[in-house]
Structures are given as C-alpha cells and as structure tokens.
Amino acid sequence: MVRIGVISDTHVRREFSSLPPEVFAAFDGVDHIIHCGDINRVEVLDELGAIAPFTAVFGNTDPYETALALQHQVTINLGGFHIGVTHGEGFSAAKRNALKRFRGMKLDILLYGHSHCPEQTMEQGVYCLNPGSATKPRCTTRGTVAILSLGETIESEIIHL
Q1: Among residues 118, 124, 114, 110, which one has the least CA distance to residue 141?
Q2: Phi, psi of 151 (to 5 degrees)
Q3: 48-74, pLDDT tens digit by residue?
Q4: Residue 16: pLDDT over 60
Q5: Which residue has better confidence, 112 or 16?
Q6: Alpha-carbon distance 110 to 77, whole Å?
Q7: What is the side-by-side strand order in the sheet with 2-7?
Q8: Which domains are assigned to the chain?
Q9: Which of 67, 113, 139, 158 has its CB 3.0 to 4.6 Å from that of 36, i.e. a possible disulfide?
Q10: In this structure, are residues 127 and 99 in contact, taking their beta carbons and an 8 Å threshold?
Q11: Which helix (H) or strand (E) is 109 found in, with range?
Q12: pTM of the predicted model, to two decimals?
C-alpha cells in the first residue's frame, strides 16, 4: 500500500511562517506528497520535503520564482497507477479543464486544485481528487488535505484540519 498526502491551495504568504501544524500531523507516515499548486512561497516545498519525497506543480497565484522551479502539469507513476497532477483553472470547471489537459494520455488518477473545494469522483474512467485548500477553504468551514491510498484499489480520505 502506498500512502500519498495530497495538498493544494496553501497560499502561504509572508505573514505565515509555515503550513498549519495539522498538515504535518495529517501527513505523518506518508510515502509521498503531491502539491497541486498555489503554493505561493517556495519554502513550503522545503517543509513538505522534510516529511516525504514530493511532487508539485505551480498554480495561477504562484509567484514567478515558484513557477520557474515547477511545471504546470506532470504525470507520475506511484503504486502502479498513472497519476496526472495539475492546478486547474475555472472555478466551477476546474475538474473538466484539468481532465482536458491530459486528454489522450493513460491516466488512472487526476489530482487537481484551484476551486478550494474538496471532491472525490470518477469521471471518464479516471479517479479525480481535489484535496480542497489547506488554508483558505471555500466549500467547508475548515482547511482540508487528502490521503490517497494505492493498493489493489484506489481509496482517498478528505481530512479536515
């Protein structure tokens, strides 16, 4: 079983010194972390890297220096599953637009953010997961992250911080 911490839309600004401590607790023991963009401070990647190896993409609010260090979308293979990672665009169409980015590619799982709303669905044969926002929730009262568990099946859990 491979356990992946999934986070997005952290929007960590200068006035915050780091991610909320609940993120570290939620990701304790994960094998990998994936950040779906809108990181805002590249130091967040150092914090995540202290927990586990990570993959990250940049989002629409990331500053130039963060965007230079990352790609807009990536595909990775973890636990034998093909995973597409992107930030997303268009609030109500974030998932649809993210799926379009990977059209024609073999994809088992799509991880995306942008809407700040956690969601777990199957679309076009692809398991789609948006972890919501760790610091600026829109559709919940508290920040959220997700744990993606890959074994014989795909399972995920939204964690309210």
Answers
A1: 118
A2: -140, -125
A3: 999 999 999 999 999 888 888 899 999
A4: no
A5: 112
A6: 12
A7: 54-56, 32-35, 2-7, 144-150, 154-160
A8: 2-160 (3.60.21.10)
A9: 113
A10: no
A11: strand 109-111
A12: 0.94
